[in-house]
Structure formats: structure tokens, C-alpha cells
Here is the input.
Amino acid sequence: MKEKIMPPLVLMLISVIVCALLVAANAATKDKIVKAQEDKFNKSLSDTFGDADYSSVDIDIDGIDSVTRDQNGRIIFEVTADGYAKGGLHLLIGFDGEGSIEGISFLSIGETPGLGTKVQEDASFIEQFKGVSSADYDFSTITGATYSSKGMKSAVDLALNAYTEHKEEILNG
Here is the structure.
């Protein structure tokens, strides 16, 4: 009887100890991880859109992770889009006060290295979106990164629609 009970009990004890260690590791690192993510977000804002007094806007828009604005009327959308990988493109897409895309910054990219990551590495690809103010614009994909390219276009289109539909609410809210 003892031979049948001991292995499951030992396995249970090992599982409880491992779970306790995971909980402790999570508790010890979660604040540092959140701080690192906030720092990266703020650095991306200032690197792409310049130093300004940015404030978060409390608004819920389908497909938009967060909305940030500055005192000059710029609106920046945080968007996570699917490329080749689900949720592989995590971007900031910013609009100037006139309603045109001013810049795009990558918070993270989970696309295939060397292929899908070309959407981040190829400056001319990102440049094609700058100045866009409506859904009617020319778009060229990157050879070998078609899904990632289409994911970028999808993210830009989502931000354009959100800007068009919610601009006044964001600026006045």
C-alpha cells in the first residue's frame, strides 16, 4: 500500500514547491516588468514624437490598446495587430494636429526574424504611411513579409478609423 501512495504524494509535494517558487518569482518581478514596459512606452513616445507633456486618455475603442495625447493636439494610438504571428505587431501610431500620420514606433515585434521583422527594419516601408490621412493611400508590401506588411496596413487602417471617429472625443475628453 505504501508503494502506491508515496509516488503521488512526492509528486504532489514537488508540484506545490515549484508552484510556490513561481508565485514568489512573479511577486518579486512583476513591478519591475511593469516599470520596464512603461519606460519603453515613454521612450518610444519621446523618440518618435518628441518630448512633450503626454497624457493618457480614458476611452475604450475596439482594437485600440490605449490612447495618448499631448498639448499640441497630437493623438497616439497603441495598437496590437496580427502579422504572420498572432499579436506580432505592437505599435504606436501617432497623428499630428492636422490628422495625418506623423510617425510609427514599434513597442515590440514577434514576427519571423529576417522576414517579418523587415517591416520594422525597412525605413522606406514605414515612410509610406507617414502623411496618410485617409484610408485611400498607396501601399506596397515587402517581398517575403506579406503577412507582416498586411498586418501593418491593418494596424494603420484601424488607427485611421479610430482617429476619424473619435478625434473630438479624445481632444475634448
User: Anything to note?
Assistant: The longest helix spans residues 2-49. The first strand starts at residue 55 and ends at 57. The helical segments are 2-49, 118-121, 123-127, 146-172. Strands lie at 55-57, 64-69, 75-81, 89-95, 101-109.
